[in-house]
């Protein structure tokens, strides 16, 4: 994982709980990725992640485009497979199961690891369940275990907010979401941001 702009994670993750990050779609062209990054940065996401193969590389012009678009968010290049340990990927959980998150939190704390605990999952929400289903069905990445209903955040806004609250209470500091590939992505990102805005004061009262 390569971070392309310096940032204090400890400062970021106290402004909203959990902090939000966006996984850019590697199948999109650079203009579409920049559009997504720009929306995320303006909505208060702290980072935009771009997954790339081990042998792939960004040109300097593409890198400058995405860094500028994501401001003030951080651009992160996810290069190649993540580092694995006996307990899974270091600092990353790919599940919304609170027990899985709590175990990962305990491993980091036991090792005095200062990295934030990231929950990286797919997301599809809507004003109705039918809207959440329709959005997920349009994205070819959301199949099998990668479907938000199975391994991510899924349902109406109210249902999704409860899921985000459980994730934060279990010890996650960053929620890295893969959102549906649909035309009205600005609406999806705005709804996603609102999930965290609503959850933060509940967590802070605990």
Describe the protein's architecture and organization.
The protein is α/β, with parallel strands linked by helices and 206 residues long. It has 8 helices and 10 strands. It has helices spanning 9-12, 30-43, 60-70, 98-110, 129-137, 148-151, 157-169, 185-205, and strands at residues 2-3, 19-23, 47-52, 74-79, 84-85, 88-89, 92-93, 118-126, 153-156, 174-178. The strands form 2 sheets. Strands 1, 2, 3, 4, 7, 8, 9 and 10 form an 8-stranded mixed beta sheet that branches. A hairpin with a 2-residue loop joins strand 5 and strand 6. Helix 2 (30-43) packs parallel to helix 3 and helix 7 (157-169) packs across helix 8. The longest helix has 21 residues, at 185-205. It is globular. Residues 1-14 and 83-87 have low confidence and may be disordered.
First-to-last CA distance = 33 Å
Structural class of the secondary elements? alpha/beta
Give, in order, the helices and strands: EHEHEHEEEEHEHHEHEH
Mean pLDDT: 85
Q: Which residues sit in consecutive blocks of at least 5 with pLDDT less than 50?
A: 1-14, 83-87
Q: Which sheet architecture does the biggest sheet show? A: 8 strands, mixed
The total beta strand count reads 10
Number of helices: 8
User: How much strand?
Assistant: 15-25%
Helical amount? 40-55%
Rg calculated over all Cα atoms:
16 Å
The shape is globular
């Amino acid at each position: 994982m390569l971070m392309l702009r310096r940032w204090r994670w400890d400062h970021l993750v106290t402004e909203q709980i959990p902090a939000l990050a966006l996984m850019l779609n590697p199948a999109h062209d650079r203009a579409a990725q920049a559009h997504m990054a720009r929306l995320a940065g303006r909505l208060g996401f702290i980072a935009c992640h771009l997954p790339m193969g081990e042998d792939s590389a960004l040109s300097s012009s593409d890198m400058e485009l995405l860094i500028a678009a994501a401001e003030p968010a951080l651009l992160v290049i996810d290069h190649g497979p993540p580092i694995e340990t006996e307990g899974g990927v270091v600092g990353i959980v790919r599940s919304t199961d609170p027990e899985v998150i709590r175990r990962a939190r305990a491993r980091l704390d036991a090792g005095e690891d200062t990295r934030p605990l990231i929950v990286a999952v797919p997301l599809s929400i809507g004003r109705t369940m039918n809207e959440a289903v329709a959005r997920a069905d349009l994205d070819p990445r959301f199949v099998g275990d990668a479907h938000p209903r199975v391994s991510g955040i899924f349902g109406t806004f109210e249902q999704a907010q409860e899921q985000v609250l459980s994730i934060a209470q279990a010890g996650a500091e960053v929620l890295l979401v893969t959102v549906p590939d649909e035309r009205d992505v600005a609406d999806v990102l705005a709804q996603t941001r609102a999930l965290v805005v609503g959850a933060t004061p509940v967590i802070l009262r605990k």
